[in-house]
Write the C-alpha cells for this entry.
Amino acid sequence: MSETGEISSILNEQRLFSPSVGFSENSQIGDLETYRNIWNYSKNDPEGFWGRKAEEMLDWFQPWTKVLEWDEPHAKWFTGGRINASYNCLDRHVKSYRRNKAAIIWEGEPGDKRTLTYQQLLNEVCRCANAMKSLGVKKGDRVTIYLPLTPELSIATLACARIGAIHSVVFAGFSSHALAERNNDAESKLIITADGGWRKGAITPLKQNVDECLAESPTVENVIVLKRTGQDITMQPGRDHWWHDVVDSKSHICEALPLDSEHPLFLLYTSGSTGKPKGILHTTGGYLLGATLSTKFVFDLKENDVFWCTADVGWITGHSYLVYGPLSNGATTFMYEGAPNFPDAGRFWKMIETYQINTFYTAPTAIRAFLKAGSQWPNSYDLSSLRLLGTVGEPINPEAWMWYREVIGGNRCPIVDTWWQTETGSIMITPLPGSTPTVPGSATLPFFGVVPEIVDANGKPVPVGSGGYLTIKQPWPSMLRTIHGDDERYKRTYWSKFPGRYFTGDGARMDKNGYYWIMGRIDDVINVSGHRLSTMEVESALVSHPSVAEAAVVGIPHEIKGEAIVCFVSLDSYAERDEALEDTLKSHVTEQIGALARPESIRIAETLPKTRSGKIMRRLLRDVASGRDSGGDISTLEDTQSLESLR
Ligand code: WT7
C-alpha cells in the first residue's frame, strides 16, 4: 500500500474448499442460494429483516414502535422497545429446559476448573449486581472492569447490564497508565479487579496497577477485589472491598431492569490514528441482536456444542463471542484464563480433547505461533470433537490457513474467516460454514444485513479485482453509536471521508466471485497480534521519556505477530546514549501501554527523515525498517543524509 491512496494487491489464491455434504445437510444455511435469498431480502428490506429477527431471537419487555430511525450518522434501533441483555442471556434460559445446562465451563491457568449452569450463573450475576447497588452504582454509571479471564469477568459484565450500569472492560494486559487513561475518560465510579491474574505461571499484579491508576483517577469511589492469586496486596479500608465479602453475602435475586433499547450497554476503548484511545459506545437492543444472530449462523450453533472463543473479554471478540452471543443463544461457552503455551505448546489441544470442544475460534497470530511450535503438539491429542474453526483479528496468510485446516481441522472442519471491528459490534464479512465455499485468505461474503462497497479516494466504486477503501453502505443494528464524549470525532473518523457511508479504515478488494479480500489498515494503525495499536500512541509514550526528542513508529511484517513495532527516535541533546537505552525505551513503552505494545526494535538516529513542511516520511521509514530499497519518490525529502544514516 502506498501513501497516495493507491492500493495494490498481490495475493492470487485459487484453492477452493466446499463444505462437505454431511456438514451442509446438518447446518442452518445449507446452500449458497438460501444464503443469497436471505441476504437480498436483508439488503432490500432491512427494517423488515431486522424487525423479524429481533422478534424471533430476543425477549422484549415492551415491543418497539420503529425498527430504525436513521439520522445520518446517528442510528436508533428498535425505538420505544424495552429490553435487558442480562435477562436475555440468563433468565429466559433458566425458565426453559436449559436451566441446568452448563453456561460457562472454565479452566484456570494453574489447572483449576469450574462449571456454572445457567441457574448458577444467574445467581452469581444477581449477587454481583446487588453488591454494586449497595456501593451506590446506579443506572447509567460507568464501571471499569479489570479482571483476569475468570467467570467473574462475565459475571461482572452481565451484572452491569442487569442494572443498566455501563461496563468498560479494560484488558488485564494493559498497564496502570493505560487503565487510568481509559478510566478517566469513562469517569467510572467503581473498578472491579482482582489481586492478580495468572499468565505463564507468573502473577500479573492487577490490584497494584489499580492502586497506581487511582493516584491519577479521582472519580473512583470503590474498588471490588476478587481473590485469585493470593499474594499480599494493599486494601484501603472504606474504598477497597473483597469480592467474597461484598458479593457472596448478597441475595441471589435481582430483577433485570427493563431498559430502553438504545440504553448504553458498554464502552470499549480501541486505538485510533491519534494518540487518545476511543471509547466506542454500544447500546443494548441492536448490539445484542447482532451478537446473537451472528453467533447462531456464523458458528452454526448446535444445542450441545461446546463453543470456545479464545479471545479475552478485554477485546470486542470476547464481548460478542464469549459473553453476549453464546449466552444469549443459550450455548455452552468455554473459557481459559492463561497463556496458550503454558506449561507447554499442547495446552490448547489438551483442553479441546478433555472438554470435547466443537467450535474453536482464534486469531491468525495464535495459529502462526502453533504452526511454528510444530504439528507434533496437536497431533498428540484427539481433536476429533472439532466441527468448525474460526479466525479473526487480521488477514490470515494462506499458509497458516492451510495448516489450520489440515492439522487442527483434520481436513474436515470448515474455516470461517470473520472480518469485523470493535466498531461493528459483530461479524460483518464471513463465510457461512454450511453454504460458502472458502478460499484461503478471503473472508468471502457479507453477513445478513451488511452491505459493503469498495471505493476509490473519491468515493466511486472500484472495478472488480481492484483494491480500494472498504465502506459499509447501510446502517446495521450492532454498529457503534458514537465515541464517548466526542461525537465530532465519531463523525470525522467514520462518516466524513465518504459522505453517506461508514468508513472502516481498511483496504480491500473484491474478486470475480464477489469474495472480499481484506488487505489491512490504511491509516496509522498497526495490527500487532490481532490487536489494534495506534502509531501515535506509541510515539507519545516514547517522547514522554526524558531522553527522547522525536519519535516515529511504523509497523513491519512479522512472521507470528502479523505486524511488529519498529521505533525510530532522535535523542535530546543532553541524553546519555548508552548501551542500555534501547531496552530502557522498550520497557518504557511497556510501562506506558502494556506488554502488547513492546517494540520489536528501537533505532536511534541523528534526525528523522522529514518533508520540507516538517512531516515525518513514514513510508521511507517503513522501507528502512523492513530492509527494502526506497524505490519511491524522495524528492520531497528535506535532508537525504538522514535517510542514509538510518540505513
Ligand atoms: C481490525 C479491527 C473484531 C475482532 C478483532 C479485532 C482487522 C479483523 C479481520 C479478518 C482481515 C481483519 C481489520 C479491522 N481484522 N478481522 N478476518 N481479516 N483483517 O478488532 O481491534 O477492532 O480491529 O482488525 O483491520 O479493521 P479491532
Q: What stands out?
A: The first helix runs from residue 21 to 25. Confidence is low (pLDDT under 50) at residues 1-7.
